[in-house]
Amino acid sequence: MRLDSLVPAAILAVLSLACQKAVIAPKPAPVASQAESQNSAPQLLQAQSIGAIQEYVDDPEVMKILSPKQAEIRATFDLPLCACPTGLFRGRNGEENLLGYWVTDIMRARASMILGKPVKFAMTNSGGLRANLPAGQLKVSDIYGVMPFENELVTIEMTGQEVMDAITQGILHRGSEPSSGVKLVLSGTVDKPDFLMTWDDGTAIRPEETVTVATTDYLYNGGDSIPALKKGRRPFTTGVSMRQMLLDACAELAKAGKPLAAPALGRYNIPQELYTAAREHKLGH
Fold first, then answer.
1. For residues 6 and 79, which has the higher predicted lDDT (pLDDT)?
2. 236 belongs to a structural domain
3. Cβ partners under 8 Å of residue 49, min gap 6
4. How many domains does the chain have?
5. Residues 129-145: what's their mean pLDDT?
6. CA-to-CA distance for 108 and 101, rounded, in angstroms?
7. Boundary of a domain, candidates 33, 50, 77
8. Helix (H) and strand (E) counts in the chain
9. What percentage of the chain has pLDDT greater than the value 70?
10. Is the distance from CB of 237 to CB of 217 less than 8 angstroms?
């Protein structure tokens, strides 16, 4: 059984009873002639906010259903995964995003396995990684903390130029977005930055070459201001959720008796001054 197979149903059972809902319904109307029906527009009730939480929590019959689900969620979330001796962190104030590096490395590896061919580049958005991984024994809840969204892994085809554009756009938008398969050295000045990008083996990125890229459905559909990814061609939705991909990677490490090791530093080399300028949207202006 997959580690998260029990969780979604349980969560949905809780959330469906603990939300607010706007209801719009047509007013009842007397029977009208065909001519009157054609000339009259439907009248709608004003949207209403229906508070559901307290009403259901106070209902003993509902709590008979919810209580086992809550216990099921807690038990699933407490399941152990692999050890993570040093923790993995998103980085602050220009530090490298080692958590993002790990996630994008897993994206490339999983996409390559699914497609049966190499995936040259992967990118996600740091805003989609909502928590750090703590040092010590990881649990299922830790992965849910990192990836609470239902995003899916997708692959697309891009040119080398589009890959470089995506990296540049990620830097200009947020200081950098985590990726796998490339190395970047940012130099120059705030007014005239110089972007030097190569593949991770040091070879040049040829603008005209076509490569396979892994990303998320959210980014491919235009989220988070990286429009170069939306230009990707031949999109393929793998059907694998980003969260499940990370759970599977941790389970494989545990089965092999290996810890989750932090990726090496040096993937992105961005001086503090240029990073700050990028965060303030002043880089290159």
1. 79
2. yes
3. 20, 21, 22
4. 2
5. 96
6. 11
7. 77
8. 11, 12
9. 78
10. yes
Is residue 268 exposed (0-12), middle (13-18) or buried (19+ Cβ within 10 Å)?
Answer: buried
Note the pLDDT of residue 34: 38
What are φ and ψ of residue 48, in 5° steps? -120, 140
Q: Are residues 115 and 182 in the same domain?
A: yes
Predicted local confidence at residue 225, as pLDDT:
82
Nearest by Cα to 275 from 94, 123, 120, 109: 94
Q: Which of 59, 270, 250, 248 is nearest to 179 (CA)?
A: 270
> In this structure, is residue 284 part of a structural domain?
no
The CA distances from residue 89 to 98, 101, 136, in Å, are 6, 10, 13
4-21 burial string, b = 16+ CB within 10 Å, else e?
bebbeebbebeeebeeee
Q: Alpha-carbon distance 53 to 62, whole Å?
A: 11
What range does the domain containing 266 cover?
81-279
Instruction: Extract the tokens encoding 111.
Output: 């996409």
Same domain, 250 and 234: yes
Locus of tokens 């995964």: 81
Taking the C-alpha atoms of residue 105 and residue 245, their distance in angstroms, rounded to an integer, is 11
Predicted structure pTM score:
0.77
Tokens of 267: 């993937």
- The angle subtended at Cα 142 by Cα 141 and Cα 144, nearest 5°, is 60
CA distance 227 to 91: 24
For the chain, give the mean pLDDT. Answer: 83
pLDDT digits (tens, 9 = 90+) for 17-60: 333 333 333 333 333 333 443 444 444 445 454 444 555 556 77
- Residue 71: in which H helix or E strand, if any? helix 60-77
Q: What are the structure tokens assigned to 229, written together?
A: 């990814």
**In-domain check, residue 66:** yes
